[in-house]
Please model this.
Amino acid sequence: MTYDLSPLLLTFRLATVTTVILLCIGVPFAWWLANTRIRFKPAVEALVSMPLVLPPSVLGFYLLLAFSPEHWFGQWLDRVAGLRLAFSFQGLVVASVIFSFPFLVHPVQAAFQNLPRSLSDAAKVLGKSNAQTFLRVLLPNIKPALLSGTVLAFAHTVGEFGVVLMIGGNLPNQTRVASIAIYDEVEALNYAAANFYAGILFVLSFLILLVVYMVNRKALK
Amino acid sequence: MIQASILKRLHGANGDFRLEIELTVGEGEFVALFGPSGVGKTTLLRCIAGLEQPDQGRLVVSDESWLDDTIRINLPPQLRRVGYMFQDYALFPNMTVRGNLEFALRKGSNKKRVDELLGLMELGELQSRRPDTLSGGQKQRVALARALASEPRLLLLDEPLSALDAEIRSRLQDEILRLQKHFGITTIIVSHDVGEVYKLANRVIVMEAGRIVQQGSPAEVFSAGQTSGKFRFTGEILAIDPMDVLCSLTVLVGNQIVRVVAMPDEAEKLLPGDRVMLVSKAFNPMVLKLD
Model:
């Protein structure tokens, strides 16, 4: 019996795109958060952590409202960038980036905070620019956190359901990711297909986490 | 030649105080900032390096203005070209010993400088090791070599030897002295170890609560008014044993256990665990040469 592989492929495409975007914005953000002394830092930290505690449906609901063509934000996006985020792959990416943000930012921020300040001081005194200091001294010394943050964000995106359902719906090849497909198949009493998707996600998630723990154990030695 | 005048509010353990320093250091001089911790020695050093901003101040190094708040000059640390040795050495864990030194090279400087420094500091065999596999003394040598690799115009040492034991300390003091002479570089060291200051510096600046209270050569500063014909040691009483007419006291002085006699009425007031001062006339001590 053959199954449609597109939900799985879509899931991994979504997770990959999300993770790459997260790395580009999350790592500098984590560095900023680790070093900033602004007064409203607790508020920023709380905001970043919100996806950890909010039901995904809450986040999805508000994002759906914001993305809808009726809303000023959705209209603005459409007018300026020609983007329609509700029920589209791009919409899923934006939502996933927000939803998985703390999974990348938290470990990376903690690692930046644990680096002795004298390291960046030393690089500065040696005449290195902030960019050189960041790329050659700071980043290489937080590799384990960078790895676990990346993998957690990836895995979390693979496993997300509520947000996707709220703002993506169930459009084949657009927004029908594996977790949605499982739900759909079960509703249609198609247990074999559901089992197929579920089994693959189960095994893959386990393997991903296994690799993280193994690599981090090695890094600690 | 360095002329500094630094003013900065500091939050110390015993409340706020002002760091107010006027300082001139001559070319090639080796100056020690001496004083208890928390009086602003490290802050002063960090202000000179540009790692901290004073509230007001001027800093002129070899006729170049590094800092002048009246005309808003504040050179970033990158452009000041100082060699700075941090208390925790701040070696980059992701680089080898050689990598740390090479990272420190200025653009366009000769790579041979790394080899020269590795040779001078006898680090050749350690060059491909990572910092976390080195001992404290080795790390210190790497940190010193790295500070010098950037061809600094000024060397700042922040309690570089405080974490090391006495023997390695003394060897590294020789090393620092040798390199300072070799490169003829103006050096400022923060220290609260009298022996270290005596050995290394030609001038001591004694700081208290953010101010300079005394300065001069180590001999002047440390012996003025204190020279006496007596030895004084402080120690802790370990045991008191009565013997016939006298009492024998066993006292721990530093790492040595000494035994002295005391009159019974003196000993009566003492208990094991008490801290005491032993004073002895030094009119005819034996002097033995060590090497």
Q: What stands out?
A: Residues 6-35 of chain A form the longest helix (30 residues). Chain A has one domain: 6-54+89-220.
